[in-house]
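Bench notes, afternoon.
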Amino acid sequence: MEHSTIPEENDKYKIDDSKVDGTKSQPRSYRVEALAKGLRLLSFFTAETPTLRVKELVELSGIPMPTTFRLVATLEEEGYLERTIDGQVRPGTSVLALGFAAVQGMDLVQTSDPNMRDLHARTAETVNLGVLYSDQVLFVARIPRRDGVLSDAIRVGSTVPAVFSSIGKVILAGMSEDELHRTISQTSFAGRWGPNAVRTMDELLEQLSSARSDGYLLQQESAIPGLSSIAAPIRQSGKGIVAAINVAVPTAEYTRKKLLDKILEPLLVASREITLRLGGSIQY
């Protein structure tokens, strides 16, 4: 009697089937090439390039125009892409729903939620949670200030270059020198950001040194004009710094002293409690 072979849990893509006579057959691939190409197209949309033309997707992916056209049409039908008025395409509501489901399912977000809410209640200011994604900070949770004074440019799923973000710098401060130089390059400093944004590795290293010694990082108008923030690290057992939490405020309402006097202590309490719940230590 011939027996079927069930994939092992750690072998997601291939099965090494044996024939009835005991000889080995070639491993079977479960990769669906059309699906892989469609996902590749979606990967080219970022915070910096939220819309693209089909021709640009062809150039970026190397997939022929007829195939790209069919993939885009299919993704449109399924709600993963949508057309803009000028004929470009951008991620649709299905991508957003999938992204929110992934973020809400993260242990980090669930673990941090009570402490973020408490920090928001104690400060009445915007609270953000972010992780490092390449040389960017990905915002995975956010509780906004109630009066809506702060810009809506940052939301869950947004990315900001780590070198301009207080969250990013706190995470980078926990890296070794080799890891830092593998993560950050001169192109990481590109773009138009706040008037006090760092522009060189030397400037960044100086701020990272302060973050390590202080256990937090305060910045004013680095990422966004008119915005100040103060961030602290979150560590997980066996993984080091996995995220950071910050409080963002209007610069016009907060001097550096006021930020330290009013925000620092509750921020550090929140970061320490989340760290302890994740089994981490509270030192760099």
